[in-house]
């Protein structure tokens, strides 16, 4: 989620145009062979996130599921940001205690002086140099799963099993286009025509997902995979934000029986609900997107207590972690 050029007074909506996400990321990778100059090394890197951002939320969940907390430290930005970038206003003195910076922009500039693209979370920063290594969020979690295996906890689940990768990739492509990014294409549409098209595409895909999940507990295979993580972070934001703020209002998630039960099943699984911060989510969207919520007022609802109600998905079989185990309770 970008903060550069996105102050509270900036516009996310371009009149008479559909929303197009800027996907020009820093594609450097941290790998076991260090091919890009950044080898896997415990304690060297810091993952910078915001609990508000769905793309960053993925990395928080995967890091916790795999038990990478001791290998990769995590800095948390507040839910809002200023015109420069995401800020560390949750920390004492509003400075990240490891990186020693107040704005994430400083780490981007340390890598690429005058960096002009989006200052986005998640970002992985090389602590010794203070420079961003990558903000390529789709690749970050895949590399956590494949390149950081030597630092996975005992019992860590296989979130990207080799025999299911083609299917996971296919599902992820549909979900990204129509759902993960589809809600933004609704919310930031610059014309009725582009909004209508995005809305229809979003709900057609949600119907497709409901049908897929009607008789199977997880999206691909019988355990949690990368595909479930990617869908979950959008579903968690659906009723608090996307339904009203982004006009994705054919119905609420809580009115879609299959997806609502599926989302609650994940929320109640260690690593998901304990990595979800509804207060940060609501604060970010309603306070920052002033061109579609000019008052900046954050709605009090909906009541989120229903996320902990029984979901009944156990009867479909499957096991969240397969032959692995749940991460330790926080």
UniProtKB/TrEMBL annotation:
It comes from the Bacteria. Transmembrane segments: none annotated. Residues 306-330 are annotated as: Disordered. Coiled coil: none annotated. PROSITE patterns: GST_CTER. Pfam families: GST_C_2, GST_N_2. SUPFAM superfamilies: GST C-terminal domain-like, Thioredoxin-like. InterPro entries: Glutathione-S-Trfase_C-like (IPR010987), Glutathione-S-Trfase_C_sf (IPR036282), Glutathione_S-Trfase (IPR040079), Glutathione_S-Trfase_N (IPR004045), GST_Omega-like_C (IPR047047), GST_Omega/GSH (IPR016639), Thioredoxin-like_sf (IPR036249). Residues 161-295 form the GST C-terminal domain. PANTHER family: GLUTATHIONE S-TRANSFERASE OMEGA-LIKE 1-RELATED (PTHR32419:SF6), GLUTATHIONYL-HYDROQUINONE REDUCTASE (PTHR32419). This is Glutathione S-transferase C-terminal domain-containing protein.
